Amino acid sequence: MLSPKLLKLLNAQINLEFFSSNIYLQMGAWAENEGLVGCSAFLTKHAGEEMGHMRRIWNYVLESGYMPVLGAIKEAPSKIKDVKALFEEVYTHEQQVTAKINALAQAAFEEKDMITFNFMQWFVAEQHEEEALARNILDRIKIIGLDGKGLYFIDQEAAKFAAQGAADGAAASAT
Ligand code: FEO
């Protein structure tokens, strides 16, 4: 059984994950348009993962005997200055998502809803990974820079991350 407060928070998280997916899909389109196929692959794949997060909570609400409700999802920003600004935005956004996930887990704990608290642990771990990934790319931008061939190498790095994630996903689904 979900309390009205937790149901409201879970529905809000469904919408936030949906919005996250739209943000990354839009960013992926921007990158593709700029000829950054590695960044585009990384971001587009990430958009798919966010939809997976949304579905995970959606199914949890349904399995708990409630109807998930989709709210209005705001427009994803499409004006992007450059790759550095893009990944700074990814990092900031993920930090905001982490704060919401933490608040949800804390609310479940305070209400002694250990089933929802346990359910949220997957997201807590996932946020740790997502923040680390965004920071990792930002660190590479700091080291390599965007001048000259820098942008090309950053795009190559993003392609590697996209391929790595795909390999991890394949390994996870095979187990
Ligand atoms: Fe589903 Fe990137 O948070």
CATH architecture: Up-down Bundle
> pLDDT average, as an integer?
94
Class by SSE composition: mainly alpha
| Poorly predicted segments | none
Which assembly state applies to the chains in this document? single chain
Order of helices and strands: HHHHH
Counting structural domains, the number is 1
Spatial shape: elongated
Q: Enumerate how many helices there are, as a single number.
A: 5
Name the beta content range.
under 5%
- Please give the largest β-sheet: none
Ligand inventory = MU-OXO-diiron
Rg, rounded, reads 17 Å
Terminal residue distance: 31 Å
- CATH level-4 homologous superfamily: Ferritin, core subunit, four-helix bundle
Relative helix content: over 70%
Which secondary structure elements does this structure contain, and how are they paired or packed?
Elements: H1 4-33, H2 37-63, H3 83-110, H4 114-144, H5 150-174
Helix pairs in contact: 1-2, 1-3, 2-5, 3-4, 4-5
Residues 17, 20, 50, 53, 94, 97, 130 line the site of MU-OXO-diiron.
Give a verbal description of the structure:
The protein has helices at 4-33, 37-63, 83-110, 114-144, 150-174. With 175 residues, the protein is mainly alpha-helical. Helix 1 runs antiparallel to helix 2 (37-63) and helix 2 (37-63) packs parallel to helix 5. MU-OXO-diiron binds next to helix 1, helix 2 and helix 3.
Observed structural traits:
175 residues; mainly alpha; binds MU-OXO-diiron
